[in-house]
Amino acid sequence: MTNTALITGASRGLGLALARSLAEAGWDLVLTARGRDDLDRVAAELGATAIAGDVTDPAHVERLSLAVPELDLLVNNASDLGVTPLPPLASYSLEAFKLLLETNVTAPLALVQATLPALRRRSGAVVNVTSDAATGAYPGWGGYGATKAALEQLSNVLAAEEPGLAVWWVDPGEMNTRMLADAVGEQEAAGATDPAKVAAALRDLVTSRPAGGRVSLQ
User: Fold this and answer.
1) Per UniProt, what is one Pfam family of this protein (predicted)?
2) Domain 4-216 listed as CATH 3.30.420.40
């Protein structure tokens, strides 16, 4: 029986690297991201199903859930950095923070809720991609870090409430991605880890299926 994974934010960065890694291992993939053109190119490369859209849109979440009547792996990778340059909390726009919470916390929970029946049928797994900013006090990273801390606690409780599933909240470490470049500059980001290396470690995690919990891949 072929395994099926649903990956958000799959058109670039870690999401793209993980999609490629799982495709090499023979997984069926349903991929989503906001950029239709980039996503379609990735889907054509990997023989995957592409469903472009915004994970904060309830109608899009419903479309994704209908595409996976049985699901082995949900990867909540889509994320937003928020305001850049990264501001201190004293001047962080509350409206911008609400939008960040919508993308980084509410949307992953909505997708978990929508796909739980499919995941339960296959005793599947959930990977929520988090960050060391969830636990570290890094100036400027308060808005983003707070959303990731909330996602970690949602994951922690989900693991307790759904013992039939494997739930991991995964800190991938610094990767050479557009998001990191937006935060720290292209020169510094260029020295970070290749997302493909992190994706390989994440595939090993999913394959070996250890007990759920917080996982740091670097």
Assistant:
1) adh_short
2) no
